[in-house]
TrEMBL record, chains A, B:
Transcription regulator PadR C-terminal domain mapped to chain residues: 92-173
Pfam families assigned to the protein according to its UniProt record, in alphabetical order: PadR, Vir_act_alpha_C
PANTHER family per record: TRANSCRIPTIONAL REGULATOR YQJI, TRANSCRIPTIONAL REGULATORY PROTEIN
Domain Transcription regulator PadR N-terminal, residue spans: 7-80
Domain of life: Bacteria
Full protein name: PadR family transcriptional regulator
Length: 187, 187
DNA sequence: ATACGCATGTAATCTGTTACATGATTGG
DNA sequence: CCAATCATGTAACAGATTACATGCGTAT
């Protein structure tokens, strides 16, 4: 129940078409709330029906034509209401941890290589976040909006820092496991 | 596509009934792959149909009667295959981060209180993990299975450490935001 | 004219959530 | 006998994923 609010947030920041939203989800919002273009189009339809957003006036109608939306006052209110309401953190669902637990009973074949690959992925993501931080949040600016957005980016950086650290630790442990030189075994 | 493998892992560790699995998901496996009893029963049915698990022999049939399952060789093979195959990390979906981004445009009302509540939740979870670590992983044991399971628990501990650290940082930032004494405002 | 990329959308399927229904067992 | 609890399950729905369909605009 958060996708509509992710979209409302994006549209309040800047009115956009479906594809533009998709691009922005790929770049920035999707770092903590991912969505595909199908989800976005479907949800835009719903939000329009519910009167929370509307098509920007001065438009072409047809299919294959760009169609931009803006947030209506009702949408802004709904977003404010949702933001203010308490919500429990959603339970974690992580495949790598599950695989390690499975590896404890069926063997570690293949897992070491993928740990290395994940480390690489997380290192890249971390580097990307740090670039964004340098570019968008140079020292000594502090509007309230900037601070909040910086805080969110900080979470991303800290989270990737956690993953890279843990993955390195995991790889070190793996190196000490019996028979983990080349990578495979099944008990 | 991981719930069946979570269940297979649990059943390889120890044959169980649906409700016993549900309990174990609440306690241990669910820390990184949560599931409700409905999901579990549905999936047990599928796994049995596919010939990956079977009912423990020596059974009563009827509804309301306990029904335990064990993993068949085909199930163990499928689990090993899945564990060894590379998988991309699933994209992050975090509501609190989304809310902060929304708060940057619609105001921070209510968010501060919930940050505090989340900090409390994550501190409790961290304490629970640490207790498990003390109880189940005293210094100086090192079977391969133990090491892998400890590694998974370590991820939980490090992750909760990240959250509590970040939430404290966020609360400190909030304290400096204009008008954030009592908690509410809308721009 | 056709092929490519942009843009919007439909459909089918799978996964997860919520609410409820039913039988068995046990303690009062 | 009754209520509570254990245990299994159904049904309906909501959310997410995957594959595909269609139309427009532009460059070759």
């Amino acid at each position: 129940m958060s996708l509509p609010h992710a979209i409302l947030t994006a549209l309040v920041e800047k009115p956009s078409s479906g594809l533009e939203l998709t691009r922005r989800f790929d770049r920035s919002i999707g770092y903590f709330w991912s969505a595909t273009h199908q989800q976005i189009y479907r949800e835009l339809g719903k939000l329009e029906t519910e009167g929370l957003i509307r098509e920007l006036p001065g438009r072409q109608p047809a299919r294959g034509q760009k169609k931009s939306y803006e947030v209506l006052p009702a949408g802004r209110e709904e977003l404010a209401r949702w933001t203010a309401a308490p919500q429990d953190p959603r339970p974690l669902r992580d495949t790598m941890l599950l695989r390690l637990r499975a590896a404890a009973v069926v063997g570690t074949a293949g897992v070491g290589d993928d740990l290395r690959r994940h480390l690489d992925l997380h290192e890249r993501q971390l580097a990307e976040y740090r670039e964004i931080e340098e570019r968008d949040f140079p020292p000594g600016r502090d509007g309230a909006e900037d601070r909040l957005r910086h805080l969110v980016l900080r979470a991303g950086i800290d989270l990737e820092t956690f993953w890279t650290g843990w993955l390195r630790h995991a790889l070190a442990e793996f190196a000490e496991l019996p028979g983990e030189g080349a990578g495979a075994q099944n008990r």
